[in-house]
Amino acid sequence: MDPRLSSRIADATSRAYARAVTTLPPDVEAALNRALAEETDPVARGELENILENISLARKGHIPLCQDTGVPVVYVTLPPTVPFEDELFDAIAAGVRRATIEVPLRPNVVDPVTRHNTGDNVGVGMPAVHVRPGARLSVTVLPKGAGAENMSRIEMLLPSEVEKIPDVVVRCVLEAGARPCPPLVLGVGIGGTFDLAAALAKEALLEPIDTMDSYENAIRDAVNRLGIGPMGLGGVTTALAVKVRRAACHTASLPVAVNVQCWANRHATEFVEVDG
Amino acid sequence: MIDLVTPLGIEVLDLAAGDRVTLSGVVYTARDKAHLMMIREGIPFDPIGAAVYHCGPVIAGDRVVAAGPTTSSRMNRLSGFLLDAGVRALVGKGGMDATVTEQLRGRGVYLAFTGGCAALAAARMRLEGVSFPELGMAEAIWAIRLDHLPLVVGIDSHGSNLFTGVQARARQVAELR
């Protein structure tokens, strides 16, 4: 890979990471404002007011919204003129290392067994990089915090249990309670295989949350009837949004994955000029 | 909104779960390792009327950069000695269990701060000192002066726990589905 391109990809990764951890996407902030407008419980209103003030302070001060700046999950689109090779992964890792120093990010990445912290948010298989073809070269960073990620789940339902899919989501949120920092965004992957369902659930978090189809709305309503509310202190909004992605699956399977995301549904995309 | 200032006294016994308060004055951060260290080596601050904040902050020099709350339930088994020594408030996110609810009875309160609000927290904090710095940035005990941090009484001194009440109602709703 041309070293200039490699350097631009590292720059874009670092910029996307910095923007993701300091500035929430406008649709997420709008959803939090709607949640405040719909809330009457004074405790829940106080929690939402704190969240909105926090978002504003982080944006103005260019400081992280949350001290858990997550682990790097990166989505890349490659145009036909850019070769798919190892240097692409090296460039993205370089961008993560730079963001760790410059933002700064909390060093969160450790060996899974020895628990040794690498100190730079890069490790074996991390950043997690997902590549697909596209018209332009883009780098999207989705920093994933542990509090919400740890509450995620996957179930292999029976093909006869299609009507139980919303129950999987509702039970997941119930068992999580206050721990994942609600109000939540819930990415739901339906179908595919064991691994594909989980990947779809995470990718669903990148979709705009200001529109939902009737199926997504019905699951969100069922979750919100739990009344867990902001920070588990009670209230009308437990889920800001439910986003579903589907894939075809085996006639004998029905994988359902729920990726739980806290109110800080952070992600940012940067584009890279390929020519010149 | 009720304004509380450390060191806290018997005024905390009048608080009820769901009351919104602000907290000012010095608080001490402590996570898992700091609790274990204090059990072994003693409490490095005056515990009478003190508030302990479940938090692993990001500190740069003498500045608090980001200092949102961590999950308090990890300290469920580690907090009794603090209340025995005179601590009046535990501050964190997500609530604590029935054991802590009993330990708080007649003595103190659990105050909930909004999870993820690291920038808001840092804007209302000034660093005053540190104990057990050898535990590292996230685990050391930092003395931090608060200026009206907005909190909710999650567990009061009469056995009322807002979190378990909300969770019990949620479980009933789920069972009716």
Record the strand order, biggest sheet of chain B.
2-3-6-7-9
Q: Estimate the global geometry of chain A from the Cα principal axes.
A: globular
Note the run of SSEs of chain B as H and E: EEHEEEHEHEHEEH
Q: pLDDT average of chain B, as an integer?
A: 95
Q: Remind me, CATH topology of chain B? A: fumarase
Largest sheet of chain A: 4 strands, mixed
CATH superfamily of chain B: Fe-S hydro-lyase, tartrate dehydratase beta-type, catalytic domain
Largest sheet of chain B: 5 strands, mixed, barrel
Number of helices of chain A: 8
Class by helix and strand content of chain A? alpha/beta
Helix and strand element order of chain A: HHHEHEEHEHEHHEEE
Helix content range of chain B:
10-25%
Helix content of chain A: 25-40%
CATH class value of chain B? Alpha Beta
Strand percentage of chain B, roughly?
A: 25-35%
Q: What can you tell me about this protein's structure?
A:
The complex is a heterodimer of chains A (276) and B (177). In chain A, 39% of the residues lie in helices and 21% in strands. Chain A has 276 residues and is of the alpha/beta class. Chain A has 2 domains: 3-25 and 63-145 and 266-272, Dihydrodipicolinate Reductase, domain 2 (2-Layer Sandwich), CATH 3.30.360; 147-261, no CATH class. In chain A, the strands form 2 sheets. A 4-stranded mixed sheet of chain A has the order 2-1-3-8. Chain A has a 4-stranded mixed sheet with strand order 4-7-5-6. In chain A, α1 packs across α4 (86-102), α2 runs antiparallel to α3 and α6 packs parallel to α8. Chain A is globular and about 55 Å long. Chain B has a single domain (2-176), classed as Alpha-Beta Barrel (fumarase). Chain B is built from 5 helices and 9 strands. Chain B has helices at 32-41, 80-84, 98-104, 118-123, 162-176; strands spanning 2-5, 20-29, 51-53, 58-60, 63-66, 89-92, 109-112, 125-131, 141-155. The relative contact order of chain B is 0.23. The chains are: A alpha/beta (276), B alpha/beta (177). Chain A binds chain B through residues 42-43, 46-47, 50-51, 53-54, 57-58, 61, 63-68, 104, 106, 145, 147, 167, 170-171, 174, 177-179, 181, 222, 225-234, 262-264, and chain B through 18, 20, 56-58, 65-68, 71, 73, 93-95, 112-120, 122-123, 138, 150, 152, 154, 162-163, 165-167, 169-171, 173-174, 177.
